[in-house]
Amino acid sequence: MATTSTLAKLRYRFVPDHVIGELLSKKWIDNAIPFLVLLCVVSLFGSLIPNFFSGSNLAIQARELGEFGLVCMAMMLVIVVGGLDLSVGSNFALGNFMTLALLNLAGWPVWLAIPAVVLICGGVGFINGFLIGYLRLRAFLTTLVTLIIVRAIVDMLLLKYSKAMSVSFYDSTVWDLIGLGGVGGVPSSFIILVVVALIGHILLTRSRPGWRAMAIGGSRRSAHNIGLSVRGTVCAAYTISGMLCGLSGVLYAARLGGAGTDTGMGLEIAALTAAVLGGNSLGGGRGSVVKALIGAVIVQVMTNGVLRIGMNSGSGPMVLGLTLLLAVFIDVRWLKNRDKLLSKVYVSPTLVELPTPRPTDAEKGGALALNDRLREVEIIGLDEVESPEDVILDENDYLYCGTRHGDIVRFSPPHYKEWEVYAHIGGSPLGMAFDKAGDLLVCVGGMGLYKIDRDRNVIKVTDETNRSAFSVVDDSRLRLADDLDIAPDGKVYFSEATIRYEMHDWPVDALESRGNGRIICYDPNTGKTHTAVRKLVFPNGVCLSHDGQAILFAESWGCRINRYWIAGPKAGTVERMVDQLPGYPDNINRASDGTYWCAIMGMRSPALDVALRMPSFRRRMARRIAPDQWLYPNLNIGCVIRFNDKGEIVESMWDKGASNHPMITSMREHKGWLYLGGITNNRIGRIRLGDWADKTWSGYRSYWGARS
Amino acid sequence: MDDRSKPQSVLRHLNQEKIVFILTIVLFILFSIILPNFLAANNILSLIRSVAVLGILGLGMLIVVLGRGIDLSLVATMAISVAWSLQLMSNGMSVASAMTVGLAFAVGMSLITGVLIAYAEIPSLFATLAMATFVYGFGRAHLITGTDVVYLPPNIGWLAQLGQGHVAGIPMPIIVAAGLALIVFLFLRYTKPGRFIYAMGDNFFTARTGGVPVRPILVMQYVLAGGIAFIAGIVTSTSAQAMNTRVVNSNMIYDVILVVVLGGVGLSGGRGNVRNVIVGTLLIGVLMNGMTIMDIQYTVQNVIKSLILLLAIVVDSILNPRDEQTGQQGDI
Prior knowledge:
- The complex is a heterodimer.
- Chain A is of the alpha+beta class.
- In chain A, 41% of the residues lie in helices and 20% in strands.
- In chain A, strand 22 (639-643) and strand 23 (649-654) form a beta hairpin.
- The longest helix of chain A is centred in the middle third of the chain and has 31 residues, at 315-345.
- The model of chain A has no long low-confidence stretch (mean pLDDT 89).
- Chain B has a domain at 49-250.
- Helix content of chain B is 70%, strand content 3%.
- Chain B has helices at residues 6-13, 16-34, 41-66, 74-90, 95-118, 124-143, 161-164, 172-190, 192-202, 204-209, 214-240, 252-262, 274-293, 298-319; strands at residues 149-151, 166-167, 170-171, 242-244.
- Chain B has a two-stranded antiparallel sheet with strand order 1-4.
- The model of chain B is unreliable at 1-6 (pLDDT under 50).
- At the A-B interface, helix 7, helix 11, helix 13 and helix 15 of A face helix 6, helix 12 and helix 14 of B.
């Protein structure tokens, strides 16, 4: 067996492979390709056109972008709800004309004219929205009709009033500020765009109406079935879209002060191109303000740039058409393959060299020698509980366990034949502990830390912690809270096994064997939760030491048990306690004689040990073959071990024939008995302990003393 | 069936095509009564002639729309390919070779469109929109030099008959349109690819699972549409003595969609026939002719046309309501 080179060790230590998968799983990565296109376009035209980056050119461009960006956002909004608005160009022209007419001919003040125009154009949008939302007409045809009608109306109005308008001129400082001025060199239309974009972004991503719009675009039928008012929301989207066009028309009027028949001609095509270039999906459900703006900048830079370079009249459309094709092509491919790519690259194994395991041969003897003591286990609740990961007993000898259905089941003493659902939490209840008041604290996989008080009320204790500084995935939410214990001062220490996988995928974390887990501390006095220790390899069982000075925790895929000092001179440090375990340690609990029980949920196998030294092999495996054929750790046969404060293993209990109770993830000593739970089991086991065990000892009393 | 359900069942049978057809007849009768010259044989011929090109393009659009697509590049293909042909002719190329080159350009461009839609899976709306801008831009930048308008060269010879000739008193454009309509009808009705197009429009994924070669058929749809657009372009240019490339920037493509949709062809595919296109074309023809005689302004004509389209789809949506449960996602 070749030892791994130092180079490989360094590589796996410092190259963050897992970040690629995490980046791909982020929602904003969608914008990466449009943004790259944007950079390319800007740098291309920036290098071709002299003075492209000069202040005056940028100011001109920004002023025009203010108008175009608003139209693109109008288009994006209706695309998000699964529609299309071809009438933006005509509506824009109408807004432009109405502004000039109201100011020049009707003599309205600016503060009255602008809202009036926005309302008029919103009215056109409302007609679209009414027809499409309430009458369920097709967006494409309906807005096509409004495109033609509104354009015709504008033409007729122009015919009638253009002469009168051309001789009058509106003079006002406010109007000039909007059209020609700005704040600190930034044109006012650009400022308006930024303000509208900010509001739009917050509405779309952080507010109920925005979420509803996204939901309707994502699946109109589902949105309808869960009771969202689909018709009203669609109608509102078109109305707002119309208002944005109107605002854009106002800005255009302020800048140029003239109306012609070609105003806004073909704007719908440009806006559509921009919206799609930015990555908004036609058909709905995927879109954002940022996407619309990226698209707007690309299209504007390109159309202006082609003109400025001085190519002949056909080249502009040619370049625009080609870019649209290319962008949509990339976008379609990206959407189609993103999840495939993600599932291929998300699993990112790292290099692990596990130390040689301690021997377990029956002939050689020793504390870990195979035996058959678990053959005599008494079975409780056979076929009545599913996946009791942890078991616990209270002072009145009631036996509690969690099930994969999200229930806490309680068995009654003395025979543990009758049972009831003590409380329903949901998620996957895992580790449990009683606090001083006798409330049951439960780590629930997929949900966080929960408490069931003595009146059986389920209370959320915490489901988030502080986010780490440079994490790509949001690790503030608890994904897989696993086991907990409570310090004398009431602080709850619990483990989160992995931040990269959900509850049902937890064995995949073994393929990575990276330090994805952490120990988290919840302080009931402040109500705050913070991460105490990071980068642990699947931290699992947590147990307070008998002296109350340290937290013992198991690192499952690391096959070791550590001690984290919470008090005393070494407070805050972590030290190795038990090493070279032959299997994957799970929950740890106190024993009556001052030692600790630890469940070994599965045994190491030479094949997986070798694979752990070959991360590229595991990566290839994760990419090439189906997940059900991957090499997983053996989680079928384990044992129970007992170790003392010095880290010495005192004894072990096995089910050699694997006939009665081979799979163990947790055990509790209670009044001379040891109760066993296993996450893949359909039963709970108990076995009478030898004479060394204190027949009156119970977990609650060991922690909190006799109840007064 | 008892008597009470009868009125409703009559309404149920009233689909968009019938509504439009009735509307056409009503308008026809109305115009015949109130407009003195409307019923004259000359006027009827010029009525049909004026919409013949629209009808031809509508046939191309029909083939695409039936398979749940849309082709916005028809007008651009038509204008640029024919304009280039004419330009080549006036530069001295023989009529036959110039025509071949033009047709090859039209078919080649629509082949690219088809491949982009079928194999690169770009939504047809975008692929054709982008191709329309590209074809127009490319043509204006590299193929047609000089002006927007390319005039018929004197050496065009017999080809000019396509737009200007008469057979038994009927103008050629009408005959070309009728002949094409018959061919497209037979193709859609009796050939395997024609039936496949309907199958794909009905349910694309079922058709694919059923063994229909969906991708080649998709490409074929666009190629056929491109070829038909070229024929429409020849008819247009020979009738008008010139090909104006600025037609690409007009509302013409919307008129083509109008003709197709007005007759009751479903934009979601699988529903429609050549008959629908003819009905839609006739309504537009009657309308435009009547309004021209009445001397109604062009913009107002546009408004009226659009309102009629709107009316047709509103009535259709009331008679055949689409609700949230049956609507297809992403159907715009």
